[in-house]
Amino acid sequence: MGAVLRGSGVSPGAGYGPVYLLAGAIPEPPAGQRHDGDAVAEKKRATAALARVADDLEARGERAGGTARDVLSAQAMMARDPGLEVGVAELVDTGTAGPRAVFEAFGRYRELLAAVGGYLAERVADLDDIRDRTIAVLTGLPMPGVPEHAAEPYVLVARDLAPADTAVLNRDLVAAFVTEEGGPTSHTAILARAMGVPAVVGCAGATGLVAGDRVLVDGAAGTVTVEPARERVDAVLGAAAARQAALTATTGPGATADGFAVPLLANIGGPRDLAAALAHGAEGVGLYRTEFLFLDRAEAPSEVEQEAAYRAVFEAFPGGRVVVRTLDAGADKPLAFLPPPGEEPNPALGERGLRMFRRYPDMMASQLGALARAVTGTTALPYVMAPMVATVEEAAWFAEACHQAGLATAGIMIEVPSAALRARDLAAAVDFFSIGTNDLTQYTLAADRQVSAVAELQDPWHPAVLDLIALAAEGAAAAGKPCGVCGEAAADPVLACVLTGLGVTSLSMGAPALPWVRAALARHTVEQCRAAAVAARGATTATQAKDAARGALPGLAELGL
Predict the structure, then answer these.
(1) Which of 3-17, 290-304, 536-550 ranks highest by mean pLDDT?
(2) Is 462 one of the annotated active-site residues of the chain?
(3) What's the rounded Cα separation, in Å, for the pair 509 and 280?
(4) What is the model's pTM?
(5) Please, what are the domains in the chain?
(6) Out of 203, 402, 483, 486, which one is annotated catalytic?
(7) Among the options 35, 187, 280, 462, which is catalytic?
(8) Can you tell me the distance from the alpha carbon of 470 to that of 464, in angstroms, rounded to the nearest whole number?
(9) Is 524 a catalytic residue?
């Protein structure tokens, strides 16, 4: 067996095949490249190239559908950004040729996004892809891309993958993704999970792999094994097939082996994600990320547009719970139609979520009003929650705003340690909790989840995080209020059992993870889940916590977990 590379496993499953190395195919235009003197014609040529790329991205999105359509639509909007067009035109006016002007103008935007960090830093790869595609149009070079035909399934390896390519990949031809860059929230990770393709991102040394080398990718463990022994390949792929059979055999609402109900809900970004949620057996929606209606656009969506998007989700789950997160924007997810906040050296600790919402009460009233009207005439159970709540005063203020708008069930996300520590006080002010483990982990361990240098600390298995989850669940239970989890932790089948043991009352995740969690819960009693929770909290490190929990959950073996 050859070398083993390690990264972040972001989409479970195993894939094996030859490496297809996606290299940067578009060279940088020469510095100092000049046009022939007709600046007007050169500007028109550059503008037309940007428009062509935007049209192509939208067309690819329409062909792919689902999550990919949303991703590529946002990328097309970046290509049509008037600021970029102005930047290119200004450079052309100084004599710079179109290809070089595009390269330099995009470079300026790239630096801005990278400096902001967080969500926007994850979009740098998208910007690079638009740049390269535009330069290809201007220079007549082939458009960068991935193979549409192959003799056998391959493992796609790249520094990072562009959404335009990832979205239209043939699932039957791609055994797995491996990227050297990117994180759990990158578009590569999002689309890999949506496609159900095993994927490892942030894998150091990945681009050093040799084209044609055979590799085994474990999307759960985050490992890439080079030239593995045939016995190893057969064992891993055989286990994957057995797991799939076990998943298929487990159906129905989420519950432990002894019938303790644990509703399994889906995280969605809009109506286009409903098909996958329903196909994987979601019992409702545990996190409707409404910010996707607002991001990457020049003006806020109208109340009519909002109402239609919300109603489509309510109607998809008659009698089911639909948990809507109000606008989670600001800081590292700025809105183009609102003035930027003052200087924020650390956007993750800045004006975001509810803090931004309170600053713009008209926007809040618009969203809450649209939600109240959207549920009228449906039988869905609307739960509306606010992100980034740190104090009892904030929680009470939001609950009152919801009730005044006609929304009876108002809750908050537990993402800030102060909220978990004072959960009993907060539970008296609201109707439910939903724990966002992504942010709770980064704030608890002071480790930005977008920074790979502190990736080892970004682990919800850390006993400190488990302690805070337990406090939140206990606080909710004492007040007779439900407490769900909608962060990435809920998608981990092993951790899902521990969360149940900690007192969490529902779990919400990306649709492809639902069968895994359903199967893991169905193989354990609630007492085994509680024992696993006690064992995990008794550990001192994240690794020890996970190992201790596994030891208390014997049914994991059947699922190969």
Answers:
(1) 536-550
(2) no
(3) 11
(4) 0.71
(5) 4-24+146-245 (3.50.30.10), 39-139 (1.10.274.10), 255-337+345-555 (3.20.20.60)
(6) 486
(7) 187
(8) 10
(9) no
